[in-house]
Design a protein that fits this description.
Length: 83
């Protein structure tokens, strides 16, 4: 049968200072939050620039549409004259 020894050596467990651990965690959390802030700012600016570029193309599309409509009317007139 297995016998439990009379003397069980107990070694002190090294404890970390709670203040240092929370300070390290707080700094790393702040660093992660800062990186997320930078990424969010970049993505929002990309969305804003994309939307601004489409606002400029709407005016250009209307001008092209008017030019095409005008040229179609010219072609229709020429076709009617030949008939």
């Amino acid at each position: 049968m297995y016998r439990i020894p009379q003397y069980i050596p107990v070694y002190p467990i090294p404890r970390r200072d709670a203040r240092l651990t929370s300070l390290r965690f707080g700094c790393s959390l702040a660093a992660v939050n800062f990186c997320l802030f930078i990424v969010g700012t970049v993505q929002c600016s990309r969305i804003f620039i994309y939307r601004q570029s489409h606002k400029g193309t709407e005016g250009a599309l209307k001008e092209i549409e008017q030019d095409v409509a005008g040229s179609i009317k010219d072609v229709e007139k020429k076709v009617e004259q030949k008939l």
